[in-house]
Amino acid sequence: MLNLLLARRDTTAGLLSNAFHTLVRHLKVWQKLSEEVEILEGRTPTYEDLKNMKYLKYVLNEMLHLYPPIPNNARFASASTVLPTRGGPPGESLIHITPGTIILYLTYSLHRRTDIYGPNASEFIPERWAPDTPSGPLRPGWGYIPFNSRPRIRVG
What we know:
alpha+beta, CATH 1.10.630.10, two-stranded antiparallel sheet, elongated, oxidoreductase activity, acting on paired donors, with incorporation or reduction of molecular oxygen, metal-binding, heme
């Protein structure tokens, strides 16, 4: 139980710390976000209010994209598999994975892939999450795993 409580606290604290640090460096984003929140006129937001705050969602998605609360992780392979290439010609440099092999991966690096997020993958651009962007809505699929799985899977 303690692990669940600490996981929730640490991921939330990390997200908020990174958000404040980033927002003070991007004052135009801060201003736009402030304008969206000011419609509440000081009252506590309802669920409907939060659902309608699109720019807040873009900012939070961008924060989780650039600064995932869990920047790296490891898994154990549960079955044998073969990865197709390891930098050599296809079919010649296979990677054989056996059950029990530890697989390390970096969410932080995955979230900065230019083939998924574009050439500005490492820049703070909340608008990339808007559905009306020139390149169309961003759909990173498994290229966006801030909590090491689909959004809202992890307790923290």
